[in-house]
Amino acid sequence: MKISIFWTWYVGLVTGTCLAEVGHKVMCIDIDATKIAQLKQGIIPIYEPGLKELVLRNIKEGRLQFTTDAKEGVQFWTAIFSAVGTPPDKKNHNKADLTYVYEVAKTFAKYLSNYKVFINKSTVPVGTGKKCKEVIQEELKKRGVSSTIITANAKIYENDNVIDPRFKHEDDNIVGFDVVSNPEFLREGTAIKDFMVPDRIVIGVESERAKKVLQEIYKPFECSYVGIMYTDIASAEIIKYAANAFLATKLSFINEIANFAELAGGNIKEISQGIGSDPRIGNKFLHAGIGYGGSCFPKDIKALIETGKEYGYNFKILPQTEAVNTEQKLKVIEKLRQHLPQLQGKHIAIWGLSFKPKTDDIREAPSLEVIQKLQELWVQQISVYDPVCIPLIESIFSSTLHYGDNSYNTLDGADALIILTEWNEFRLIDYTLLKQKMYGNIIIDGRNILDRQEVESEGYIYEGIGK
Q1: What domain range includes position 277?
Q2: What's the CA gap between 152 and 161, in Å, rounded?
Q3: Contact 382, 348 (CB under 8 A)
Q4: How many CB atoms lie within 10 A of CB 384?
Q5: Domain boundary among 308, 327, 346
Q6: Are 224 and 218 in contact (CB under 8 A)?
Q7: N or C: where does the chain have the smaller number of CB atoms within 10 Å of the terminal CB?
Q8: Reported pTM
Q9: Contact, 250 vs 264, CB < 8 A?
């Protein structure tokens, strides 16, 4: 099938590349001409393991192409995915900014000439699909074109033939379209696997014709016994937010238990294992630490809370999930000050800056708040290292930080080491080198990746989360 993807950032680029990998012909569209030129050369704008190799292979095979031509993206392709960003609104940070979603909908309507499917891949609040329909209809009206939206009960296919005359396009002034919600469930760092071997595919549709198009798109995944579920559009939109909100709540829950366990003398690793063994709970997202970050959980929880208010419902649990997470991010500072009450004039080293390993994403990362707090406490030198996202951190903090080209180069004369991201290279420490480099002997493990007994046996003070 011929598929176009609007926007070539994280979701759009991964979606387009993976759909090309399973055999579809895909065109990715972006208004950034520089980015498009780079993508044509195989230069990837994001860090995602395995993505570059897939992009290069599918460009070579002729299944994947990139352009700034929005008209071609709509007119010559069957299914149009909108994978634009939905960042926090500038006026109200608790709401999702849907400007780009509606811009793509307008572009879709501007060049629509025969039946197409507009597919929302972006994370959007419930009601966005309905609004997109209205935006598309309004733009068609400006063109003097009548539009027909298929209703849930409209039968338009029979043995692959169109039987509803509204969709034979004998009248050039009438065009049909459908809006579909197909939320993404990609995790940064494992996005290729998540797309190619998904645990579920959720599709919100209102017509059999749209359903048939989506079935054709996802036909290559049927052999992998993937659960493909069809819902109404509103339910599909809610599923995405509800999933993220539940996982975030699970993280905040285990962090609260970790904080309590410290006071009561428990060990959060053993506690997590004990409760995670219950199949009704499961062991995923029960790893205590310094809270969640990234592009999804923080903004999606805020947006869901705000959307609830718009529908007259005040969530009770989700505001507390957010509050616990906000406090948890600075837990490492609290632990550091137990051993260094006066931080003015000290040298603190930080390992790990991205919100999670295997990504260069620093959006809402705990490292941002930790660094800012250390600066407020007049720490003399903050030395930082991360395998992939130093340039992004440098663009924010500039020369106020010292940047190491490897983890141990940040430790010269450091009074303490704080670990904020669980990159694998931090799990095994060369203590001989550590003793040569560090001045102090304090290690704050914000991700519980080190063994307490081992660290303490080497003469260091160890502080984890929930231990």
Answers
A1: 242-327
A2: 18
A3: yes
A4: 25
A5: 327
A6: no
A7: N
A8: 0.88
A9: no
Question: CA–CA distance from 204 to each of 129, 174, 386 (Å)?
Answer: 9, 24, 39
Q: Which amino acid belongs to residue 120?
A: N
In the block, which residue shows the tokens 């033939």? 161
Q: Tell me the pLDDT tens digit for each residue of 199-254.
A: 999 999 999 999 999 999 999 998 766 789 999 999 999 999 999 999 999 999 99
Within-domain flag for 19: yes
- CATH number for the domain including 376? 3.40.50.720
Query: If you ran DSSP here, which 8-state letter would residue 155 be given?
Result: -
Structure tokens at 402: 């010292």
Task: Give the CATH number for residue 296.
Answer: 1.10.1040.10
The tokens 């960003």 sit on which residue? 85
Residues 315, 435 within the same domain: no
Looking at residue 76, what is its pLDDT? 81
Number of domains in the chain: 3
Residue 132 known to be catalytic? no
From the candidates 28, 132, 296, 389, which is the catalytic residue? 296
In the block, which residue shows the tokens 């298929």?
Answer: 150
Amino acid at residue number 222: E
Name the CA dihedral angle for 292, 295, 298, 299, rounded to a multiple of 10 degrees.
-170
Retrieve residue 57's tokens. Answer: 């292979």
| Same domain assignment for residues 89 and 212 | yes
Burial 193-222 (b: 16+ CB within 10 A, else e): ebbbebeebbbbbbbbbbbebbeebbebbe
State pLDDT tens for residues 380-428.
999 999 999 999 999 999 999 999 999 999 999 999 999 999 999 999 9
Q: How confident is the model at residue 159 (pLDDT cuts 50, 70, 90)?
A: very low
b or e along 164-174 (b: 16 or more beta carbons within 10 Å of the residue's beta carbon)? bebbeeeeeeb
